[in-house]
Amino acid sequence: MTWIHRIRGGIIALLRPKRAEQELDDELRAFLDASVEHKVQSGMRREDATRAARLELGSHTSVKDAVRDAGWESWVESVWRDITYAGRSFRRSPGFTVVAVLTLGVGIGATTAIFSVVHGVLLKPLPYLDSGRIVRLYMNMPAAESPSKRPGG
Questions:
Q1: What is the percent of the chain with per-residue pLDDT over 90, rounded to a whole number?
Q2: What does the buried/exposed string (b/e) look like for 122-139 if buried means 16 or more CB atoms within 10 Å of the residue's CB?
Q3: How far is CA 62 from the centre of its chain?
Q4: What mean pLDDT do residues 13-17 have?
Q5: 102-139 pLDDT per residue, tens
Q6: CA distance 71 to 51
Q7: Rg of the chain's alpha carbons, rounded to an integer?
Q8: Is 9 exposed, middle or buried, given 0-12, 13-18 or 19+ CB atoms closer than 10 A?
């Protein structure tokens, strides 16, 4: 299956979940029928072939869940459900929402300010030509000894 078909199928599953569910049911039914026919042609009775095919396929619900979880649209749907749940929770407790938003704002603002200072002072090169050759010269002057610490004094 090409990536275009996967994207198309995912969009259909997100926008029209009943249609996607019906397509999945039809596909599973067709697979089961084909498996039964193959077993009947190999010499099994129809009842035994149907039972064997259903045992091979497994639970209809678990197969559908596995197929749904394999696609990217299940991740998008899960994220969307989490966002709507968070929105409902924030609406129910506005005090917590204000504290959370203010905390995030202060944290993001402080991080931006610290990064701006670090970038300007430590990471950005100095605004001079050939700034790698700039050196700092200094001279250490020994402290003058006090008269009380002189030998013999």
A1: 25
A2: eeeeeeeeeeeeeeeeee
A3: 25
A4: 77
A5: 999 999 999 999 999 999 888 887 777 887 788 888 88
A6: 29
A7: 36
A8: middle
